[in-house]
């Protein structure tokens, strides 16, 4: 299925049942499909159904024939999917044809949106991570408001503190003196009780 939707462009969906997926590997159709889909702006391979794996990791018998859909090992199947993804093709697994229809409709709605900027938005203080705020408030001279400003300014709390005094001073309400004290605190040189009290004001 191929459709052209602005602003995304050419979107293609290739649907394969699990049995057809493995048959198309053997006869070369999958290679040709992946090659053609790589030229699209958005390409999605929808795999319908699932392979049941035995304890050794091989496909279990399915369907009326009682034969496994493939003799592949689960690790080889995963590697196949990684190879498809490496070509820029999204892989979506669905349980049945209804899942395929729902996926195509959802993709069409998404592709037709004017913007796709959800992941580009900066989080505000209201959505700040409570744990990050808590950690910051445990540092000398940092109260709730200042902790919120720091999280907003740096878009979170880094695991390893790599912020310079100059960068800290750029956060509204910190300034060079408080930035120096905060840097010293993070380096293990703690201010005394009087200095900490003055820094919080």
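Q: What amino acid sequence fits the structure above?
A:
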């Amino acid at each position: 299925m191929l459709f052209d939707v602005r602003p995304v462009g050419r979107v293609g969906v290739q649907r394969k049942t699990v049995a057809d997926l493995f048959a198309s590997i053997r006869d070369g159709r999958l290679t040709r499909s992946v090659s053609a889909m790589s030229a699209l702006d958005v390409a999605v391979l929808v795999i319908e159904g699932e392979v049941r794996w035995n304890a050794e990791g091989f496909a279990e018998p399915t369907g009326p024939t009682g034969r496994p859909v493939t003799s592949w090992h689960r690790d080889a199947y995963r590697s196949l999917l990684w190879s498809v993804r490496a070509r820029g093709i999204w892989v979506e697994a669905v349980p049945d044809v209804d899942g395929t229809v729902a996926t195509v409709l959802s993709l069409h709605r998404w592709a037709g949106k004017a913007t796709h900027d959800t992941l580009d938005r900066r989080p505000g203080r209201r959505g700040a991570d409570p744990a990050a705020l808590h950690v910051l408030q445990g540092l000398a001279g940092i109260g709730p408001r200042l902790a919120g400003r720091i999280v907003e300014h740096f878009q979170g709390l880094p695991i390893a503190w790599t912020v310079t005094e100059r960068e800290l001073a750029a956060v509204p309400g910190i300034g060079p003196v408080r930035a120096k004290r905060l840097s010293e605190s993070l380096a293990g040189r703690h201010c005394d009780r009087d200095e900490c009290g003055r820094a919080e004001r």
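Q: And what stands out in the fold?
A: The radius of gyration is 27 Å.
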